[in-house]
Design a protein that fits this description.
With 235 residues, this protein is an alpha/beta fold. It has nine helices and seven strands, in the order αβαββαβααβαβαβαα. The chain is 42% helix and 11% strand. Bound molecules: zinc ion. The site of zinc ion has 6 residues, from β3. Zinc ion binds next to β3.
């Protein structure tokens, strides 16, 4: 984040992305920083860093996971991701997942925007066969997540990220029917102004160096380079 800020990168939000796809100009050095799920480390670690460097991120939250209670303060030791997932599965997720109070605080300071990552993060393709029941379950998830965001933050956007990046063609139709116009995937691909906002690509960063990030930004910022690079990756 320090590297991005030093080089004058602008972190865009949902409205900027909509304007980008509508053909409007964005700063040359623009990127979108996204987080998925809504783990507590987003508040403990990411929020102060984004605030320090004047950057903003989009957080796709699983609205059904968010807990109640006061904002957590002071030094908090967080377990690794595997343990976080274990606690969620056994019903003690509050110790590792955001609370609404924290979501409201981050939203009010502008470090994070909040968008839908469904209500329960269920991979419905593993639960139900293809068909109307599965689409009904997904549609209900999407409606619940929108309603929760509206109730707590006073708004819900038309940006959605698929759980584990998994989607099928009829999911996209269902999301559009629920009013979502910008769908985020886990596919590595460039996002061109003339591209499809229903299949937005993202690059997973994990714990890489700033130099690695700089390289990826150079590749995906250039239609030609990214085309060659994605071809090379696939071959
Ligand atoms: Zn997720």
């Amino acid at each position: 984040m320090a590297w991005l800020a030093r080089r004058g990168w602008t972190a865009l939000g949902a409205d900027d992305i909509a304007r980008f796809y509508a053909g409007e100009a964005v700063p040359k050095r623009s990127l979108v920083i996204t987080f998925d799920d809504g783990y507590l480390d987003n508040f403990i670690h990411a929020h102060p860093v984004l605030t320090e460097f004047g950057l903003k991120a989009m957080l796709f939250v699983v609205t059904g996971w968010l807990g109640e209670g006061p904002v957590r303060r002071g030094a908090i030791e967080l377990p690794n991701h595997r343990e976080c997932k274990r606690r969620l599965a056994e019903g003690t997720g509050d110790s590792v997942v955001l609370r609404w109070s924290e979501v409201e605080l981050m939203h009010s300071t502008g470090s994070f925007e909040f968008h839908s990552h469904t209500h329960t993060h269920t991979r419905w393709d593993l639960q139900l066969p293809t068909g109307p029941d599965r689409i009904a379950a997904i549609s209900q998830e999407l409606a619940l997540s929108r309603a929760a965001l509206e109730r707590r933050l006073g708004y819900s956007s038309d940006h959605l990220c698929w759980p584990q990046g998994y989607y099928e063609a009829d999911y996209v139709d269902a999301a559009v029917k629920q009013g979502f116009n910008y769908l985020y995937t886990t596919e590595n691909k460039p996002n061109l102004r003339t591209g499809d906002p229903l299949h937005i690509g993202r690059v997973v960063t994990k714990e890489r160096s700033a130099a690695w990030l700089g390289q990826r930004l150079a590749i995906y910022g250039s239609p030609l380079l990214s085309h060659l690079y994605t071809k090379l990756r696939k071959s």
